[in-house]
Amino acid sequence: MNPFREANALHTRRQFFGRSALGIGTAALATLLGRDAFGAGLPVASRRGVPGLPDLPHFAPKAKRVIYLFQNGAPSHVDLFDYKPKLREWHGRQIPDEVVGGKRFSTMTGGQTARPVLGEITKFAQHGQSGAWVSSFLPRTAEIVDDLCFVKSMHTEAVNHAPAITYFLTGSEMAGRPSLGAWLSYGLGNETEDLPAFVVMTSRDKEASCGQIFYDFYWGSGFLPTKYQGVAFRGSGDPVLYLSNPKGMSSEVRRGVLDDLAQLNELKRQDYGDPEITTRIAQYEMAYRMQTSVPELTDFSRESEATLAMYGPEVKRQGSYAYNCLMARRLAERGVRFIQVMHAGWDQHRNLNTQLKIQCEDTDAPSAALIRDLKQRGLLDDTLVIWGGEFGRTPFLQGKIEDTKQWGRDHHPYSFALWMAGGGVKPGFSYGASDEFGFNAVENKVHVHDLQATILHQLGLNHERLTYKFQGRNFRLTDVHGHVVKEILA
Fold this sequence. Notes:
Blueprint: H1 3-9, H2 13-18, H3 24-30, H4 35-38, E1 50-51, E2 65-72, H5 77-80, H6 85-89, H7 97-100, E3 124-127, E4 132-135, H8 139-143, E5 148-155, H9 161-170, H10 180-188, E6 189-190, E7 198-204, E8 231-233, H11 251-272, H12 275-297, H13 305-311, H14 321-333, E9 338-344, H15 352-376, E10 383-388, E11 392-393, E12 411-412, E13 416-421, E14 429-431, E15 433-434, E16 441-443, E17 446-447, H16 448-458, E18 468-470, E19 473-475
Parallel strand pairs: 2-9, 2-10, 5-14, 5-17, 7-8, 7-9
Antiparallel strand pairs: 1-6, 3-4, 5-13, 10-13, 11-12, 15-16, 18-19
């Protein structure tokens, strides 16, 4: 056996180009040397946190961090926030053709010719000094309406869950683009080096009433270096795998192993100039620091009984929505830049009469408690909180009007509602409107890209200038669209 031939045979294509002075390795190494090479600088760790790009933010931010309470499956806007008396008046009657206007829907109702209007299944009332309409299923949210900014004219193009969620979180219906949290981590860095800049937590309804899947690309880094992807905390056991040392390994031994690994990886990085090796070094270091920071983060013993009670009875059950909301507050006060809390179970095609109330019971108190908790700790002013799903639900019925046990609503992208709080948005304010059936957004329409541009703006970022060059093109979160919704800004 010839060792030289053997070594050459084991060379990969990446290794070949990595060793070429004029090859891909040089291009990759150039990205490590600053923005001048390709307009895509890489933050460098510091003792005070992990800074982002040197010229960001573009202007003074109103918010330092974001908590996105994403409601997978799409809450029914016409049953929760967008009160439409016309629905009760037309209950059981065919929705006018001129309202539907040839719109497309999912396969569940795409071929359904009978589209009877379904009146709201909850009771609405006005609350607070703002007089916001809120469903009786959300009593705790109703108590904080004067802290909320409702957007009732959201609209999107996607009619199915995964593309629609991907659209909200990455700016594209197709998977593979960097997520919102990754963009913020890349541009702004982190306020702490003991926890990731971007943390994701997921939960689902206990009844497992719908088949929503949490895909990794909902918090992926796309074509950005993988160091910017979200770190998903698990719903049981250690929040992150392998956080605890194996039996017989002390912290000193672990430190020595990581130091040796770092030296080996640094040699490889110098050899190949691959930015993913930089990611590997950084992630090993982050994992080591998290061995100390995460146990303290997940220890609720110092939380007051009043605080725990505010979040509800599920707050101590790891993996529940209530637990994740309290964790979101604890992550926010420790400097995490973007916290993505995703809860599945809102996809009520055949169980609206039963499951909508259950979903509201599981999420109402924790969502409201998070706002109260942030506010009383002085964190709400510089924390932008967003609550909403990927689209709304149809004002007409999916199924037959006489079959009350299987009432449901299909996916509805043409008008729906969400709310925001803190982070420089107007409190006690409602923006935009749908038509009298809650079908089409007709006043001050807000598109997905408009929302994304507004979120970035509140963190001091011009959405048109936060770009990354990939395959010869400067990409951005909002693609070539979007405008800041200045009317909702305080």
